[in-house]
Amino acid sequence: MKNALISLALGAALTLASNPVAADCYADYKAKRDNPLKLHYGVVQLPDSACASVDAARPVIAQRIAPDGWTLLNVVSLFGADGLTEKRKTSAGEFFLRY
Fold it and tell me: Are 64 and 27 in contact (CB under 8 A)?
């Protein structure tokens, strides 16, 4: 029983060690809604798979905002947690980390 617990603990530790902690990835973007025309600037957190490039982020953001009637215009930039500045938060307003 004791050996089984040690093996289980060792296995869990090795699993955690082999999965590095994911880095935070964010993007800022611009979107529009028609009839009447509305524009917004937003900041969104992305999965690591969408952080390789703006092209990889584009479909992820577009899919998230589409249910609310928004169309993605462009992805402005990708950045880490250090880019979550007060200026971005103020500019994005209600669209700061909404999607």
Answer: no
Tokens found for residue 63: 């899919």
The predicted model scores a pTM of 0.75
Q: How far apart are CA 91 and CA 93, in angstroms?
A: 6
Specify if 9 maps to a domain: no
4, part of any domain: no
96 neighbors 43 (Cβ within 8 angstroms): yes
Range(s) of the domain holding residue 79:
23-95
Number of domains in the chain: 1
The one-digit pLDDT tens for each residue of the chain (99 residues) are 454 434 444 444 433 333 333 469 999 999 999 999 999 999 999 999 999 999 999 999 999 999 999 999 999 999 999 999 999 999 999 999 999
Q: For residue 20, is the peptide bond before it cis, meaning its omega torsion is within 30 degrees of 0?
A: no
Distance of CA 3 to the CA centre of its chain: 41
